[in-house]
Sequence to fold (278 residues):
Amino acid sequence: MKFRIVSDSSSNVFSLPGVDYAHVPLKIITAKTEYVDKPGLDIEKMVTEIKNTKSKSSTSCPNVEEWLAAFGGADRVFAVTITSKLSGSCAAATEAAAQYEAENPGACVFVIDSLSTGPEMRLIMEKIREHLDFGHSFEHIKESIREYQQHTKLLFCLESLTNLARNGRVNPAVAKIAGVLGIRVVGAANEGVLQPLHKCRGEAKALDTIFSEMKARGFSGGKVSISHCFNPEAAESLKKKILSAFPKCRVRIEPCAALCSFYAERGGLIIGFEDALA
Ligand code: X90
Fold:
């Protein structure tokens, strides 16, 4: 029985050692270029180019064929997608799953709508890998992941919400507040959409606010995954803060790939974490 984990590139995960893993890219479309969210892309250049242009840029999700190709050859697939409330990725994966099962009798695809993105998707995939290592059955893993998702959360801290607002993923009024120099918006993924919570002046204040929000949401030293858009310093400061309160905590830091970099924009942080019941 061949098991595979597949995610769209909003997870920022391009390899997952120890399991059969594939990713399907989202795309970032500008007036001049189409950027495919794959390893090797010069994201710094992309972010700078987009910041310096007045013309509108947008994104597009993987299509059914791309998901299908990524499933190819596996008997059991876990397909983890960005929130279905903000992207068509989950719908395409669901359609691909139905086609794949029809064309490959006996094969099963479980589509997991993360209702989130980035680091929370990584936590979900690492949990699936743990179950696979234990040799658990497909059905058992499906149930366990549904339960695990109740105990993973996502927070974000953004210096600019311009691209989110321009593409209708957040209220323009909220984006305007974030546009003020030095103001960061700290918020949460709530039922699959962005929920702004605080306006913070300065990064130190924002990091304190994130850590308080984590604790308010049940964090007590569980696993943490932080993705940043060209802001490793802030990610490290947050990690330090977490470790000083929870010295044994596993905190992973990684850069955003293209899709998350486009929406989180330079300076942005996205934090996935487990609550006490995970
Ligand atoms: O299908 C597409 O074109 C992709 C659209 C994605 C839109 C939202 C991406 C958000 C990326 C921003 C901070 C975290 C927000 C979490 C919300 C659930 C990152």
